[in-house]
C-alpha cells in the first residue's frame, strides 16, 4: 500500500493530500464509540481549553481504539511510503480532536498556526520547538461542508516557510502564539471536506487550523504526529530543507530540482 505518483505530486506541490476511505469502518466505529462513551461520563468544563488545544479524552490517547487507526490500518504503510520504511518512530498516542458546534454567526476567522510552538495551553514548554515530520488526520465523521470543523490548510506554505527560514532563520518560532508565526504572504486557505475513514496527510510545515464548526454536529477526528527517526538531530535543519525526512519523495523532488517535467502520465 503506497501513495500513487499523482498523490505524491499533489503532496509535493500543496503540502497535503486526502486519501479517501483508508481506515475500515469497524475501526472508525470503535474509536467513535470509545469517545462517546467517555463523553457520556462527563466532560470537565474547566478543562475545555486544554482539551481543545491538546486532546479530548486523555484516557483514550494511548488506547488501542486510537492507536490502531494508525498502527493496524493501511495508514502506516502510506506514511512509510513517503517518509521511508523503518524511518518513522513508533506511534504510541493520538490526539482526540473533537470540534463542537459554535453559535457564532458569522463564524469567527480562521487562525493559521504551525505546530510544536509554545502556547499557553498546548503543553509545549516556552523555548522549545517540538517539530515533527508529518501530521496525519483520520476523519471519524463526515465533513461535507465548509465551517463544519474541517481541517483548514494554507496550500504551499511548506515551501513559503522554507524560503522564509532560509532568509531569516527560525528564531521567530520561539515567540510562540500568533506573534511567532513567520510573516509570509498567505495564500487562500482550503477547508478540507472528508468522509469518515479518510486519512489526511500533511507536511509539518503547513499552516493549518481547525475551521470553526457552525454545523449542527460535532466533528470527530484523531491526529497523529509522526516523527522521523532522526528528527531530533535535524530539528532545525529540516525547516530549511523540507524534504530531508522524506525518502519516498526523493524522485519527485529530484525531478523538480532538475527542472524535469512532472507530468502525471508516468
Ligand atoms: O482539529 C483539527 O482539525 C485541527 C487541529 C489542529 O490544528 C492541531 O491540533 O494542530
Task: Sum this structure up briefly.
With 266 residues, the protein is of the alpha+beta class.
Can you offer a commentary on this structure?
With 266 residues, the chain is an alpha+beta fold. The chain has one domain (5-257): Jelly Rolls (Sandwich). Helices cover 26% and strands 14% of the residues. The chain is built from seven helices and eight strands, in the order H-E-H-H-H-H-E-E-E-H-E-E-E-E-H. The protein has a five-stranded antiparallel beta sheet. It starts with a helix and ends in a 9-residue tail after the last helix. The site of 2-oxoglutaric acid (AKG) has 10 residues, from strand 2, strand 7 and strand 8.
Which consecutive residue ranges, at least 5 long each, have pLDDT under 50? none
What is the distance, rounded to the nearest whole angstrom, between the alpha carbons of the first and last residues?
Answer: 18 Å
CATH fold topology: Jelly Rolls
Total strands: the figure is 8
Secondary structural class: alpha+beta
CATH architecture: Sandwich
Give the number of domains: 1
Broad shape: globular
- The helix tally amounts to 7
Estimated radius of gyration: 18 Å
Q: What profile does the largest beta sheet have?
A: 5 strands, antiparallel
Oligomer: single chain
Residues in helix, %: 25-40%
Question: What fraction of residues sit in β-strands?
Answer: 5-15%
CATH class: Mainly Beta
Order of helices and strands: HEHHHHEEEHEEEEH
Largest sheet, order of strands side by side? 1-6-3-8-2
Question: Averaging pLDDT over every residue, what do you get?
Answer: 95
